[in-house]
């Protein structure tokens, strides 16, 4: 199995967040000696506060403050004992009041994150299964990770996609005792709701279905006694729902609450729900504030507060209706999301609003898809109508300027969020003297020109791309038919600024995932060949590696050139039905391209290392051995030299048909065993085309007896780049003979000798097996890519399957 380095999802998140922090729009600090909810101080400037999640403003209520203050003096700053032994004196009163609100058994937890960690592993049994809405809160997804240790099946569906949910229910119906669907009641970014009525209809159709709903953003401002959005849909919460909500945010205190109609579950959780047993309990001040808030919730005052908030929500909706601002989801929640599309536009818009005197939240990956960056505005009772009117006026003024500054348009933003557009606002790409050319066939591009700028790499010279175009056209299976896209941007003097090419092809979602993920996926593909696969428009191709673009960084128009390409590519990908775009095989993360691509809505991911011998400086085998480091020379003497005399090597330009068929089977041996780079198996037609091409040759390894009769021990399929680069692209192995002859190591070694003998200047070994290649003198180069997806579903599903 090839040793390979896989991307860590957290590294991708860190890159995006770090970029936003550099822009000065997140990780800010509030200042000032007092807060009143209406305004907030940042960098010694007082701003109107439109970022709170305390929608009813209870965190500033004097009754809650007085109760918390008194509790500190009466009981101390904390009660340092496990709740398993004893709860501090205020807990019983809080639990009684919460029971009175919900008329159902409840459990109070330190916060919702610890609550999910306590409850989910307790109620979900080994014989159960879990289905996650892919936008369910991170704290739920994190708690579910613990279930995988117990081999509980965990699936994920696209956001609020009931057809996909029902499909998963049918799939799990005979395999699981209970099937838990986990979702939010009110989603924190777009402010949209879970389809409770439709979900309840599904529970009637599938009795195994149970709902686990996190309703922390629906609490207090909705429902009888402020019990929240989800509870407002029922006279009494049914037993097949577990409801999590919060005592913080709108409730105004701290902590969280599980409402548990199932008394058996309630007992299990109370008796042993990990963090409930071993974590500290809520501080007396928090419990006292929660009691004061519960008293408000149990009185008619709560409905007055709810109505006051609804008046503000209605007013803010009316203000937005008279603008062209792209409101992503209009509803009755206090959460509003104005789409900006690309992060660069979001950064610009937020900074403009901060400067104008308004604090709003930036919606950023991974909370939203990277192409769905936007501004989240929350409305609370603190906000006055004149404040809202000023904010909308400021947004109306600054939004078009943010679009202009970042060279995008309202029409484009609307498309990214699938919103209706009034047709106004076409691309605001600045006029310049550069122009873009596009071709779908390398044959339409001058060979000398292409090879001058792009030919010095892998199979990306003109001849190699002509081979790929012919090999991956008119095949029987759709995964083996690729569409090519060639881009060249010239300046007014016809000097190329950016040159690149892309292919649209079917990729497996887990192509670069760890082995364990691909093994799970391949089990499902035995039934459905195209399970978890989709069209991807990617720089380069699945067959090529290395640098797939030329960018003249010294040219003043390179930013504009790339914007033109990305804009055209966005339209092209949509026509192709591709939902993921990949810019791949970049070496230097400090390149100016790095921040540019991130601001254009791409997520940086780690790629497997590239392995190259950049320059063959030796003339023969003896000189090569002498060039090796001490460690590599030791490896040669131990693992290669003793086996060298056991084999015979043949280099052939063209193979007899019978031998070609045997070599293809050897390739399939490797492909079927190695999921390190999980792609679809190439068809025989590709190898047939290799056999006809002057650019390809085959290195075959035989045992010393039976050469030309037996099936080879192994084969290396090698491309001869027109710029004198040797490219061993694929390998085939007989695994039954692998250890006896050290076949793979012998093939790597012989490839170096053959490239030397033919006077090639360098060898491009590509990715994977970097450990083995390094031992033979290859240079290891860290690589990364940038991806852009319509949503986070694929990334999050793969992360869940780890």
UniProtKB/TrEMBL annotation:
GO molecular function: transaminase activity
Stored Gene3D superfamilies: Aspartate Aminotransferase, domain 1 (3.90.1150.10), Type I PLP-dependent aspartate aminotransferase-like (Major domain) (3.40.640.10)
Pfam families: Aminotran_1_2
Domain Aminotransferase class I/classII large: 50-392
Name of the protein: Aminotransferase class I/II-fold pyridoxal phosphate-dependent enzyme
Cofactor or coenzyme needed: pyridoxal 5'-phosphate
The keyword Transferase is assigned to this record: yes
Alphabetically ordered keywords of this record: Aminotransferase, Transferase
InterPro entries: Acyl_CoA_acyltransferase, Aminotransferase_I/II_large, AON_synthase_class-II, PyrdxlP-dep_Trfase, PyrdxlP-dep_Trfase_major, PyrdxlP-dep_Trfase_small
Highest rank taxon of the organism: Bacteria
């Amino acid at each position: 199995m090839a040793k390979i380095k896989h991307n860590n999802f957290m590294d991708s998140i860190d890159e995006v967040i770090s970029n936003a922090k550099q822009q000065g729009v997140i990780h800010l600090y509030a200042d000032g000696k007092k807060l009143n909810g209406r305004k907030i101080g940042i960098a010694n400037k007082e701003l109107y506060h439109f970022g709170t999640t305390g929608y009813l403003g209870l965190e500033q209520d004097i009754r809650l403050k007085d109760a918390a203050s008194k509790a500190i003096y009466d009981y101390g700053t904390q009660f340092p004992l496990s709740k398993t032994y004893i709860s501090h004196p205020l807990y019983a009163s809080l639990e009684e009041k919460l029971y009175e609100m919900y008329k159902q058994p409840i459990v109070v937890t330190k916060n919702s994150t610890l609550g999910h960690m306590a409850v989910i592993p307790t109620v979900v049994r080994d014989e159960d299964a879990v289905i996650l809405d892919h936008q369910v809160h991170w704290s739920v997804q994190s708690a579910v990770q613990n279930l995988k240790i117990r081999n509980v099946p965990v699936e994920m569906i696209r956001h609020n996609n009931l057809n996909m949910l029902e499909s998963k229910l049918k799939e799990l119906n005979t395999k699981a005792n209970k099937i838990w669907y986990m979702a939010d009641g009110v989603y924190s970014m777009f402010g949209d709701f879970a389809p409770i009525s439709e979900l309840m209809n599904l529970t009637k159709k599938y009795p195994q279905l149970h709902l686990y709903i996190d309703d922390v953003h629906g609490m207090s401002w909705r429902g009888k006694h402020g019990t929240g959005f989800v509870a407002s849909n029922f006279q009494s919460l049914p037993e097949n729902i577990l409801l999590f909500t919060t005592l913080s945010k709108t409730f105004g205190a701290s902590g969280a609450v599980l409402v548990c109609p199932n008394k058996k579950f309630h007992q299990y959780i109370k008796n042993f729900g990990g963090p409930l047993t071993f974590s500290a309990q809520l501080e007396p001040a928090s419990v006292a504030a929660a009691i004061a808030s519960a008293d408000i919730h149990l009185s008619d005052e709560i409905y007055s507060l709810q109505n006051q908030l609804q008046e503000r929500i209605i007013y803010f909706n009316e203000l937005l209706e008279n603008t062209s601002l792209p409101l992503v989801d209009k509803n009755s929640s206090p959460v509003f999301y104005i789409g900006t599309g690309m992060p660069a536009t979001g950064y610009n818009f937020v900074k403009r609003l901060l400067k104008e005197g308004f604090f709003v939240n930036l919606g950023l990956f991974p909370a939203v898809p990277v192409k769905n960056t936007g501004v989240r505005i929350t409305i609370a009772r603190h906000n006055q109508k004149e404040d809202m009117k000023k904010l909308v006026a400021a947004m109306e003024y600054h939004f078009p300027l943010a679009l202009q500054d970042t060279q995008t348009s309202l029409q484009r933003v609307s498309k990214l969020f699938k919103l209706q557009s009034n047709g106004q606002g076409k691309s605001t790409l600045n006029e310049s003297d550069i122009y873009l050319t596009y071709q779908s066939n390398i044959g339409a591009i001058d060979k000398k020109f292409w090879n001058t700028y792009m030919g010095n790499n892998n199979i990306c010279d003109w001849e190699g791309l002509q081979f790929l175009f012919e090999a991956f056209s008119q095949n029987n299976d759709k995964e083996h038919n690729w569409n090519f896209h060639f881009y060249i941007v010239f300046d007014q003097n016809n000097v190329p600024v950016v040159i690149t090419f892309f292919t649209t092809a079917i990729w497996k979602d887990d192509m670069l995932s760890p082995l364990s993920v691909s093994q799970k996926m391949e089990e499902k593909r035995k039934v459905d060949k195209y399970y978890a696969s989709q069209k991807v428009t990617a720089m380069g191709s699945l067959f090529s590696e290395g640098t797939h673009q030329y960018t003249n960084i010294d040219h003043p128009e390179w930013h504009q050139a790339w914007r033109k390409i990305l804009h055209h590519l966005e339209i092209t990908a949509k026509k192709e039905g591709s939902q993921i775009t990949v810019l791949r095989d970049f070496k230097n993360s400090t390149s100016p391209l790095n921040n540019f691509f991130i601001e254009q809505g791409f997520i940086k991911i780690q790629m497997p290392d590239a392995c190259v011998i950049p320059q063959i400086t030796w003339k023969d085998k003896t000189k090569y051995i002498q060039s090796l480091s001490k460690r590599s020379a030791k490896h040669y003497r131990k693992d290669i030299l003793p086996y060298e005399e056991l084999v015979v090597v043949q280099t052939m330009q063209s193979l007899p048909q019978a031998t070609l068929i045997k070599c293809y089977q050897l390739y399939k041996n490797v492909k079927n065993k190695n999921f390190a780079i999980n792609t679809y198996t190439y068809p025989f037609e590709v190898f047939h085309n290799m056999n006809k091409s002057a650019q390809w040759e085959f290195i075959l390894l035989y045992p010393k007896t039976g050469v030309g009769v037996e099936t080879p021990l192994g084969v290396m399929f090698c491309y001869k780049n027109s710029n004198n680069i040797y490219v061993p692209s694929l390998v085939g192995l007989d695994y039954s003979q692998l250890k006896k002859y050290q076949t793979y190591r012998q093939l790597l070694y012989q490839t170096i000798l053959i490239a030397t003998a033919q006077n090639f200047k360098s060898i491009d070994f590509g990715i994977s097996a970097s450990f083995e290649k390094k031992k033979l003198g290859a240079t290891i180069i860290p690589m990364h890519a940038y991806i852009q997806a319509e949503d986070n579903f694929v990334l999050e599903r793969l992360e869940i399957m780890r």
